[in-house]
Amino acid sequence: MKEEIFKNLAKCVVDGDEEGARKWAEEAIKAGIDAYEAIMNGLAEGMKVVSELYEKGEYYVPEVLLSASAMTAAVEILKPYIKVEKAEKPITIVLGVVEGDIHDIGKNLVKIMLESAGFKVIDLGRDVPLSKFVEEAKKHNADVIAMSALMTTTMPGMKKVIELLIKEGYRDKVKTIIGGAPTSLDYAKSIGADAWAKDASAAVGVIKNLVAK
Ligand code: B12
After folding, report:
1. Is residue 86 a part of any domain in this protein?
2. Does any ligand 1 atom lie closer than 6 A to the CB of residue 123?
């Protein structure tokens, strides 16, 4: 039952079937399946297949956009059912996709996970001007700046944000974490970021450790 629902959620993302994705998200709720599991084991698995098809040249931008819409529609249904933990102390995170980069599916999953863990997330969206990360962190007295990049060409933007923090004398006031498919722990270290996480669920634990330091 559970596996069948995951499979159908994944299939609807691959097929770009928004209506089907909504229907299977509702089925998942009815069947008492954990909403986060439905996102990660169903929808995100489908997105992995889409990524492979795109890379093989079998899918083009229009197909990927349909898949992204199907995924977003199902996430909207599942989101209210994600169990929210109370954070021990309130932690504010400024999150965004760096300038020049409009890939926000992963960032949105990270947001869902962080909010579910009880963190306060200031979502700056995608294609975020680099200085805005610093401005918003100051404005909200944020504990963490979390940056996402999905392209090798936009990754250097994360380094620039850290350089801006140093320039403005704010580097020791806020922790930084980066993520996104082309990034790595080594890259994070090389640009002076405090942390890196592979995926949305890992991000929660990594940020908890980061702010406890
Ligand atoms: C979907 C997609 C699109 C969609 C984006 C829709 C949207 N709203 O996001 C559309 C069709 C619009 C698109 C457009 C383009 N794309 Co595109 N796209 C992809 C694709 C297939 C999947 C990305 C995705 O959503 N993955 C699923 C999510 C769930 O995974 P994720 O993003 O990696 O996120 C997870 C982790 O990385 C992590 N994470 C992510 N962010 C963060 C942040 C923090 C702080 C942390 C801790 C963790 C974390 O957690 C997430 C969840 O677990 C990738 C292929 C790939 N292998 O990545 C190409 C890819 C990223 N795209 C690529 C390209 C080139 C483009 C275009 C330039 C194409 C074009 N010619 O127009 C444009 C770029 C426009 C722009 N300026 O940004 C290239 C980038 C190559 C490079 N230079 O590095 C890729 C790698 C494909 C390829 N092999 O060529 N794309």
Report:
1. no
2. no
